[in-house]
């Protein structure tokens, strides 16, 4: 129920924090009618101390604290036992030394974000902070406490992504007056911040070749900020979105859906995998839009299932923009093809479709790729993916990646020597050898463990 009444994850966490403060720490000082600003004011010092601990430790990737750590931030073990902190910090038994941690990393990230949202005082500081947290660009000079004496390795940026999303949510809360009682004064030029942020996000999508996770994080940040003015400025600059070869959750797809609905849908190339049927429903809503401009849709390696793909066919029935659709390894099953002929025979834009040859009778101009080995582009995409896994063996810990590799290998084995074009045959042979090597080395590694 709490998720249904809030639009973002940040709001849910903030609601929990207010509940903990109000009902577990201020029993004698606050009741149900006490204004939010008064509740926050009463807990201001504790939240400030806790937020600073959370933030500075997060930059160091530190999640466990001893008594001395707590005391250096004005937090005592007695506080943990007797105040609302007992619902945020927990005691750990680490050998003979008593240690503490936030009861979940996301709670630490949320409190760190709240601390930063309260302590930044101008548009410039907000932009400098996002440059630093998202891309590792250190601010030249700043009076903000959270931007002074900071040090962060570039390889640690990924660990700040959830924190950055929470920050955008807490920044929105501050602009809405929901942090009154914690903040000293309004942000300088507060009214112009949504547009300024829109231009910042626009620039990231326009001038940078974003990595998969970086692009996805920006979408989540826009969702958490949840302001139409900002998203409407940024979204039109998203021309391509490559989220291929990474696992996407329903929440990821919700962020993508939220952002794209504020653009004239200039997005022309969309690639992702590891989706389930719920994500397919969200993607179908994008394809049904009258302003959709997606031309290439790569959905290889997804687990759409028959229900998800049935919805996809319905969306494509009247879509007039998608020209290429790639659907290898999607768990379609026979039931998932029940309405494909009726739906796609009415589609006038599709030019290339993997698998499903029965459509050729009704759409003789439609090029059907029966197996991914028949398409050099798909073969190369799979080769690139295998190279990524070879470079980062931790990816082999993912069951989905291992299963996907076996599915690709099975497709290669089925194709066998039937591949007609020499170049395709050579790439297929190279791909098969590399996958077999990966799976073999992964089995040996697991056996060694």
Automatic annotation (TrEMBL):
<dbReference type="InterPro" id="IPR032675">
    <property type="entry name" value="LRR_dom_sf"/>
</dbReference>
<keyword id="KW-0832">Ubl conjugation</keyword>
<protein>
    <recommendedName>
        <fullName>NACHT LRR and PYD domain-containing protein</fullName>
    </recommendedName>
</protein>
<keyword id="KW-1271">Inflammasome</keyword>
<keyword id="KW-0067">ATP-binding</keyword>
<keyword id="KW-0395">Inflammatory response</keyword>
<dbReference type="InterPro" id="IPR041267">
    <property type="entry name" value="NLRP_HD2"/>
</dbReference>
<dbReference type="InterPro" id="IPR050637">
    <property type="entry name" value="NLRP_innate_immun_reg"/>
</dbReference>
<dbReference type="GO" id="GO:0005737">
    <property type="term" value="C:cytoplasm"/>
</dbReference>
<dbReference type="GO" id="GO:0005524">
    <property type="term" value="F:ATP binding"/>
</dbReference>
<feature type="domain" description="NACHT LRR and PYD">
    <location>
        <begin position="104"/>
        <end position="226"/>
    </location>
</feature>
<dbReference type="Pfam" id="PF17779">
    <property type="entry name" value="WHD_NOD2"/>
</dbReference>
<dbReference type="GO" id="GO:0045087">
    <property type="term" value="P:innate immune response"/>
</dbReference>
<dbReference type="Pfam" id="PF17776">
    <property type="entry name" value="NLRC4_HD2"/>
</dbReference>
<dbReference type="InterPro" id="IPR041075">
    <property type="entry name" value="NOD1/2_WH"/>
</dbReference>
<keyword id="KW-0677">Repeat</keyword>
<keyword id="KW-0963">Cytoplasm</keyword>
<feature type="domain" description="NOD1/2 winged helix">
    <location>
        <begin position="46"/>
        <end position="102"/>
    </location>
</feature>
<keyword id="KW-0547">Nucleotide-binding</keyword>
């Amino acid at each position: 129920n709490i998720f249904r009444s809030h639009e973002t994850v940040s709001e849910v966490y903030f609601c929990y924090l207010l509940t903990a403060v109000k009902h577990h720490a201020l029993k004698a000082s606050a009741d149900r009618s006490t204004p939010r600003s008064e509740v926050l004011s009463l807990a201001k010092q504790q939240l400030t101390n806790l937020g600073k601990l959370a933030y500075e430790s997060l930059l160091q990737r530190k999640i466990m604290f001893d008594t001395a750590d707590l005391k250096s931030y004005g937090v005592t073990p007695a506080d943990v036992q007797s105040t609302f902190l007992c619902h945020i910090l927990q005691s750990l038994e680490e050998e003979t030394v008593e240690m503490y941690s936030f009861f979940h990393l996301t709670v630490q990230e949320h409190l760190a974000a709240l601390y930063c949202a309260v302590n930044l005082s101008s548009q410039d500081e907000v932009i400098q902070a996002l440059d630093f947290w998202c891309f590792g660009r250190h601010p030249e000079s700043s009076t903000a406490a959270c931007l002074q004496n900071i040090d962060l390795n570039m390889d640690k940026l990924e660990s700040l992504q959830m924190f950055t999303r929470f920050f955008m949510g807490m920044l929105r809360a501050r602009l809405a007056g929901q942090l009154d009682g914690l903040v000293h004064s309004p942000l300088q030029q507060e009214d112009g911040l949504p547009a300024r942020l829109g231009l910042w996000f626009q620039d990231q999508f326009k001038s940078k070749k974003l990595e998969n996770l970086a692009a996805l994080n920006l979408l989540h940040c826009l969702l958490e900020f949840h302001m139409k003015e900002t998203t409407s400025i940024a979204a039109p600059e998203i021309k391509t979105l490559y989220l291929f070869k990474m696992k996407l959750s329903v929440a990821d797809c919700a962020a993508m859906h939220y952002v794209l609905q504020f653009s004239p849908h200039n997005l022309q190339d969309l690639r992702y995998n590891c989706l389930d049927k719920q994500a397919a429903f969200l993607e179908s809503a994008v394809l049904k839009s009258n302003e959709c401009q997606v031309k290439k849709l790569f959905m290889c390696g997804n687990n759409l299932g028959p229900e998800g793909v049935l919805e996809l066919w319905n969306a494509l029935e009247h879509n007039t923009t998608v020209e290429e659709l790639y659907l290898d390894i999607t768990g379609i099953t026979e039931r998932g093809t029940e309405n494909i002929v009726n739906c796609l025979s009415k589609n006038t834009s599709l030019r290339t479709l993997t698998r499903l040859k029965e459509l050729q009778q009704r759409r003789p101009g439609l090029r059907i790729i029966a197996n991914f080995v028949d398409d050099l582009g798909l073969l190369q995409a799979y080769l690139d993916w295998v190279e990524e896994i070879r470079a980062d063996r931790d990816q082999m810990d993912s069951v989905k990646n291992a299963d996907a590799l076996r599915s690709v290998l099975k497709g290669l084995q089925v194709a066998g020597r039937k591949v007609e074009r020499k170049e395709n045959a050579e790439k297929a042979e190279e791909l098969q050898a590399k996958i077999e090597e990966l799976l073999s080395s992964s089995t040996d590694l697991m056996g060694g463990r």
